[in-house]
Amino acid sequence: MDALKLSRSLPPWLCVSQFKLAHKRLLLPVALLALLAAPITRDVTVNTLSDAFWAVSSYVAFTLALYHYIALFFTKRNAAVELYLNSRHYQVVFAALLGALPGCGGAIIVTTQFVSGKVGFGAIVAVLTATMGDAAFLLLASKPSVGLGVIALGVIVGCISGWVVNIIHSDDFMRPSHSSLPERCTGEDSSPVESRAINLQGRFWKWLIIPATIIAFLGSFQIDINQLLSLPEMSIEWIGCICIITSMLLWSLTKEIKNYQSTVSEDDKPVASHPLQRAAQDTNFVTAWVIIAFMLFELTRHFGHLDMGNMFNGLGVWMPLMGVVVGLLPGCGPQILVTSFYLTGAAPMSAQLANAISNDGDALFPAIAMAPKAALVATIYTSIPALIVGYSYYALFEM
C-alpha cells in the first residue's frame, strides 16, 4: 500500500509504469558517439560518417532544396491538370510522371484522388510502380545518370502497367464506397522541444548547404580538401563526422517513434514551411537510414572480415526477389537501405531495379488507411513488373 501511495504521489514522468523513451531516435546519435569513443571502432566510424556526410547528405540536401524550390512553380491548376483528370488514358501517363518525382508527394496525391473518385485504379498502379520514394534522392545525388535511368524506366513500366490494368479493370475497381480523407499533419501539435529541433535543423542546413556542397563537389574530383585548405590530416573527416552527428541529434528530437509508420516514413511537414526547412527534414531522414546501412556494411567488414558485396552477390538468382520483397514493405526507410547497399556494392543492379519498381514508399500508408483492399491489390500488381524487370536484367547482364 505504501508503494502504491508513493507511486500516486509522484509526477507522471517518474512513474515507472508510465515511463517511455519517446525519442527513440536518440539511440542512433548515442550509438554513433559510443562507436567514436571506442578506440577499436573510432577510425572506421569517422571515415564512414565523413563519407556519409560529404558524399551523400550534402548532395541530397542540395538536390532536395532545388526540388522543393522548383515544386513551388507547379502548384497551380492548368490545362495539363484538366487533361489528367478527364482522360483515362492520360491519367496513367500523368500518374506515372507524378510517381517519378523524387519523394512520395506525387504518389500520395494520386492515392487520395483515387479514393475521392477523380482518377481510376490504373492510375494508382501506375504511380505506385513508378515511385521510388526518398530513395530516388539518394540515387540521384550519388549516381545521377543511374538515378535518371531508373526513374525513366519506372515511368515506362508504370505506364504499361497502368494501361494493362485499365484493360482488365474499371476505374472504380476496389474504390471504397464511403471514405473520409484523413487530413495531413501540419505539425501544429509538435511539442516545444520538437518545434525547436525542427527550426534548428532548418538553420543547420541553411548555413551549411552551400559550403558542404562545394566541399562534396571538390571531393568528387579526388581533391584532398585538407591539403587544399592547409588543414591537419583528418580535419575534414572529423568536421564531417561532427556535422552528421549534430544533424542526427537534431533529427532525433523532431519526432516521437510510436509505431512502424513513424519509424520508416518521412516526417510530416507544415504546408507553409520554407523549401529549405522541408529539404532539411527530408535530408536528415534519408541520412539516418544511409548511416544505418553504411555502418552495418563497414562494421561487418571490419569485425567479420566479410565482403558483403561478395556475400550478397553469392545469392545470385535470389537478389531480385529480395529487392521485390523489401519493396513490399511500406515506408521509405527499408528502400533507402536497399539503395545504400547498391551504392556500396553489396547489392547488384537487378535487386535495385526490382526494388525501385516494387516499392511504394510512404504512399502506401494513406492507401492502406483509406482503401486497404485497393492498396493490397495494387501492391501485388506492382510486384509483377518488378520481378520481370529485375530478372530480365539479371539474365541479360549478371548471370
From TrEMBL:
It holds the Pfam family ArsP_2. Keywords: Membrane, Transmembrane, Transmembrane helix. InterPro entries: ArsP_2. The chain crosses the membrane at residues 52-72, 92-115, 121-141, 148-168, 204-223, 235-253, 285-303, 315-343, 374-396. This is Putative, 10TM heavy-metal exporter. It comes from Vibrio xiamenensis. The lineage of its organism: Bacteria, Pseudomonadati, Pseudomonadota, Gammaproteobacteria, Vibrionales.
